[in-house]
Write a structure and sequence with these properties.
With 394 residues, this protein is an alpha/beta fold. The chain has helices at residues 7-19, 29-32, 40-55, 67-75, 84-107, 120-124, 126-141, 164-174, 211-218, 228-241, 256-261, 279-287, 298-305, 348-354, 362-366, 383-387; strands at residues 22-27, 33-34, 37-38, 59-64, 113-118, 145-150, 179-184, 205-206, 246-250, 268-270, 292-296, 316-321, 328-332, 338-343, 380-382. The protein has two domains: 4-276, Acetylglutamate kinase-like (Carbamate kinase), CATH 3.40.1160.10; 290-393, Archaeosine Trna-guanine Transglycosylase, Chain: A, domain 4, CATH 2.30.130. The chain is built from 16 helices and 15 strands. Helix 4 (67-75) crosses helix 5 (84-107), helix 8 packs parallel to helix 10 (228-241) and helix 9 packs antiparallel against helix 10. The radius of gyration is 22 Å and the shape is globular. Residues 1-5 and 387-394 have low confidence and may be disordered. It binds glutamic acid (GLU).
Length: 394
């Protein structure tokens, strides 16, 4: 792992934060709620810091967790119900209190807010994705702070972001934000769980999310929220590949947002990558949930991974799952290694009919042809691009 503390990093951290005119601030359940429900003092402090940003004309998009944990205490439950409908009912109760609490504290500063509840499915469809984006842009133009949470009352596994860390990274990309602030109940990323190990060290700067960083994070689970440190790192990595810096810091500390924006060295700062995935490729790789897999032969693997080529039917050995035209699919080697993610021009049923065939034989086999390529190069993101820090659109 490379943690960089020199003057250059300090300066570039300050410059990056100063440049940010649109920011996503994610606040975790562990910050917003305690055993007695919503922590109104913390909510007040955070809102006041966010309003100070608004006064400097910085646009703020708030991703707020806390629906389930605030619902629990409201109903008088000590633990999450086991059934899905139970959890959803708790979230429905808690979301109402959560948004009311935010509205009240923002109102004191004359700041209007809006509630947006979304599911991953809304991001999977390009049309709905763009629609959500336009709505948020309209709110921002009206100087309103959008407050976003996952629509917990309707989500089932297939259409779930999973956690609000993932949601915050996707929102960052959706609205082209220039900075992601992730507020949790720890100071930042440590090399060990600080709640267990007294000698754990805070990592001030991460210049690239490596396997080692994930290993550190693996040992630090979340308590109230669903994410834990690992999902925060994954979110920071996604933002970084989009050219956006992230800070993970302690949201329970009064004035934390102010300190971050003053450029003080609080929390863990994740530098953005220089060469990044363009918005479309990020959408394919990170936003759309893969619906299936395509196993390819070594020739196709070489052509795609090293030759920059598209996927043709001739290289396909197996088709897994039931994906539709336009869905994201994972490309797998015959050994099962995940090579790339791409957007398919044919559905799974069609591919089973044309796999192994030459391009010229597609029409005969199907009676029609959408495209020569099963996945066009422009809609393909190689796995190596995540490890190497991203590729530009080619
Ligand atoms: N959407 C969930 C809630 O508001 C939180 C998910 C998370 O903590 O990551 O309760």
């Amino acid at each position: 792992m490379k943690t960089v503390r020199d003057k250059d990093i300090k300066e570039s951290r300050k410059a990056l934060i100063k440049r940010a005119r649109r920011v996503v601030i994610k606040v975790g359940s562990g910050v917003l709620t305690g055993k007695d429900g919503l922590n109104r003092k913390i909510i007040r402090d955070l809102a006041s810091d966010m309003c100070a940003l608004r006064k400097k004309s910085i646009e703020v998009i708030l991703v707020s967790s806390g629906a389930i944990s605030s619902g629990l205490s409201k109903i008088g439950l000590t633990k999450r119900p086991d059934s899905i409908s139970g959890k959803q009912a708790v979230a429905a109760v808690g979301q109402a209190s959560l948004i009311m609490a935010w509205e009240k504290v923002f109102e004191r500063h004359g700041q209007k807010v809006a509630q947006i509840l979304i599911t991953r499915d809304d991001f999977n469809h390009r049309g709905r994705y763009l629609n959500a984006r336009n709505t948020i842009f309209t709110l921002l133009a009206w100087k309103i702070v959008p407050i976003i949470n996952e629509n917990d009352t309707v989500v089932v596994d297939e259409i779930k972001f999973g956690d609000n860390d993932n949601l915050s990274a996707m929102v960052t990309s959706l609205v082209d934000a220039q900075f992601l602030v992730s507020l949790t109940d720890l100071e930042g990323l440590y090399d060990m769980d600080p709640r267990v190990h007294e000698d754990a060290h805070l990592i001030p700067v991460v210049d690239k999310v490596s396997r080692e960083i994930f290993r550190f994070a693996g040992s630090i689970p979340g308590f109230l929220g669903t994410g834990g440190m690992r999902s925060k790192i994954r979110a920071a990595q996604k933002a970084s590949l989009g050219g956006v810096p992230t800070v993970i810091a302690n949201g329970t500390k009064p004035g934390i947002i102010r300190d971050i924006f003053r450029g003080e060295e609080v929390g863990t700062f994740f530098l953005p990558q220089d060469v990044t995935l363009c918005s479309r490729k990020r959408w394919i790789a990170f936003t759309k949930a893969p619906k299936g897999g395509i196993v390819i032969d070594p020739g196709a693997e070489r052509a795609i991974v090293h030759g920059g080529k598209s996927l043709l039917p001739s290289g396909i050995k197996d088709v897994r799952g039931a994906f539709g035209l336009g869905d994201s699919v994972v490309l797998l080697s015959q050994e099962g290694q995940e090579l790339a993610v791409g957007m398919a021009n044919y559905d799974a049923g069609e591919l089973r009919k044309i796999m192994g065939l030459k391009t010229s034989e597609i029409e005969k086999a199907l009676g029609y042809k959408h495209d020569d390529e099963v996945i066009h190069r422009d809609n393909l993101v190689l796995g190596s691009s995540f490890e190497e820090g991203g590729i530009a659109c080619r």
